[in-house]
Write a structure and sequence with these properties.
Oligomer: single chain
Number of helices: 14
Radius of gyration: 21 Å
Low-confidence stretches: 13-20
Helix content: 55-70%
Shape: globular
Mean pLDDT: 89
Structural class: alpha/beta
Largest sheet: 6 strands, mixed
Order of helices and strands: HEEHEHEHEEHHHHHHHHHH
Strand content: 5-15%
Distance between the termini: 36 Å
């Protein structure tokens, strides 16, 4: 379920630590044109006007982290719209385009910025995301007043400060370029350590990543957890770290909590499972997402089931099925049947 290579990809790309390969579109390049099939919110943007700052935030309805980022982008739009900053939420790689318009309408004021849908050929995603070496979303691009890319990364990872600096004219492109060079150098070291199966080196490099990008702490710490669990098999250290993070960096971060709990519960080669910790993390992730996220509920149900709390497992999995989208409903329904069958097979006390 959570191979260490996948964890590295999730953290290094999706968390915006750096792009996976040498990209064709880089910071300092002219922003490509937009290819839009339709605009759902706000006025259409035909081209990037000189003197304005633009933020292109790529998202999809099926992407949990994207949905979690939307209220934050709305807050930024409210705070910065009078400073010449234009926010565009670009729907990309959508599995079912009929879901986009109803989703935006349901969000209402929680998605108060311009929203557009990429064209049928995913041209904008190709010219922006793929050209920048980004194959994960959410991913945002900040376009400066001269129409050039000033920053690329996760919308929850340092974007606020960059936008304010670009809008105020205090942004330092040279400093940004130096940071990008450091990230590229670090990337090479991480890849070498991974290929050498050197968990100790990866842990040390993780600490360097935290210094370079402290706002990505939640994701980087999850990578460290995965290294300890899967490469080092140091369960005591992994669980001690996760327990501490539950009350600190991960306290309000449902994704790493859910993924870490899932790793404890589902990874086949885990030799020692801390089910109590997995349950605590799953409960917190479900609490943060207000009992409305199917993936979080599914993990919570699994934690209850492994703890022998079958009734609670059935209750949580029933909610997971009810909240599931078309892609996951069938699989989660099968899990619910499994839990119900286990209850029937258990002798009454």
């Amino acid at each position: 379920m959570f191979r260490i290579g996948k964890i590295l990809a999730l953290v290094l790309v999706a968390e915006g630590v750096f792009a996976a390969d040498a990209p064709a579109l880089k910071v300092g390049d002219a922003a490509p044109a937009l290819s839009i099939s339709k605009w759902l919110n706000g006025e259409a943007v035909a081209s990037f006007e000189k003197g304005k700052v633009y933020v292109l935030e790529c998202w999809a309805t099926w992407c949990g982290p994207c949905v979690a980022s939307i209220p934050h982008v709305s807050e930024l739009n409210t705070a910065l719209k009078d400073k010449g900053v234009v926010f565009i939420g670009l729907n990309v790689w959508e599995r079912d385009r009929t879901k986009v318009d109803p989703f935006v309408k349901r969000m209402g004021e929680r998605m108060n910025y311009r929203v557009a849908v990429d064209d049928e050929k995913n041209t904008t995603a190709q010219n922006w995301l793929m050209a920048a070496g980004r194959d994960g979303i959410p991913c945002a691009f900040v376009v400066d007043k001269g129409g050039k890319i000033a920053w690329i990364g996760h919308p929850m990872d340092g974007m606020d400060e960059v936008i304010e600096q670009v809008a105020a004219g205090t942004f330092d492109p040279k400093k940004q370029a130096e940071q990008e060079a450091r990230r590229e150098e670090l990337q090479k070291k991480v890849e070498a350590a991974y290929n050498a199966n050197d968990g100790d080196a990866l842990l040390k490099l993780s600490d360097e990543m935290l210094v370079l990008n402290p706002k990505a702490a939640a994701g980087i710490q999850f990578m460290k957890f995965g290294i300890l669990m899967q490469m080092k098999k140091d369960y005591a250290a992994a669980y001690a770290m996760a327990a501490k993070l539950l009350d600190s960096d991960w306290k309000n971060e449902p994704e790493p909590l859910n993924q870490a709990a899932g790793m404890i519960l589902d990874e086949k080669d885990v030799q020692k499972r801390d089910l109590d910790l997995a349950l605590k993390m799953a409960q917190r992730a479900d609490e943060i997402t207000q009992h409305a996220n199917s993936a979080m509920l599914d993990t919570l149900a699994r934690a209850y089931f492994e703890k022998g709390m079958t009734d609670k497992a059935i209750e949580a999995q029933t909610q997971a099925v009810a909240k599931a989208d078309a892609d996951s409903k069938e699989e989660r329904s099968k899990v619910l049947v499994k839990y119900e069958a286990a209850k029937k097979a258990t002798p009454a006390r």
